[in-house]
Amino acid sequence: MAKSVAVLGAGGKMGFRVTRKFVEAGYDTRAVEVGDIGRARLAEVGIAAVDQTAGLDGAEVVVLALPDSLIGKVAHEIVPKLAAGTMVVILDAAAPYAGALPERADITYFVGHPCHPPLYNDETDPAARADVHGGVAKQAIVCALMQGPEAHYELGAEICRVMWSPVMRTHRVTVEQLAILEPGLSEMIAMPFVDMMAEAVEVCAGTYGIPREAAFDFLIGHLNVEIAMWFGYSPKVPSDAALRVMAHARKYLIKDTWLDVLSPPVVKDSCELIVQGRTA
Questions:
Q1: Could you name the CATH architecture of 4-173?
Q2: The model's pTM
Q3: CATH number for the 181-276 domain, one of 3.20.20.70, 1.10.1040.10, 1.10.3640.10, 3.40.50.970?
Q4: Band of the pLDDT at 106, cuts 50, 70, 90?
């Protein structure tokens, strides 16, 4: 395993969680954090923040736990200073796929992202059953070796398994495939439909006078059944009437070109939107 890991943004939301995981796993962890709130958060659990120069000195792996809009700027600042063979780990595909990373052939770029705990699982501990983000409940992760020697794939995957432990599966993909998964599949397909469902509950209550709790219970219960049937957790046995109504509703809800959102050009444009901080 790598002995020294520098985490930039160690006191932020994601950075704090992964920094604690490295410390607990016994790594030489350099918690690089410039914000007072983040430094105080680290100090509360006994982790001393260091400056960037001290953190990067001799680090074998550098984790960029930073907002997507800052990754390019910070990478261009630090990558020229790193020793040859250093691995830089990015926790999201947006900046790498948008071309925000500086070119340097003797540096390894590795990209990983958690899948988050699955909706249907075998967790029995109450804390794990309540964990929707990961860190307590088991989850799968997705990893991509963007550039670097093939031997570095397992090192990067192990770094990701530590950050997002406990991990039940590790999937290897390309950076483009990871970008299709996020922002594509998760944020450009799943999230808009979830947002529309939440809005529909409010319309049921506000426009049609249905008690909001009734609409909420009805939707959540039916989602449980429908997700289970469509994704193979139970036999897919909807009624013929339900299938006909679903086909009828798709004409109102979905354009014929909706799957274009997963195409590389659209995904790349979305990654550039994320990195540049612009709106659609």
A1: 3-Layer(aba) Sandwich (3.40)
A2: 0.94
A3: 1.10.3640.10
A4: very high
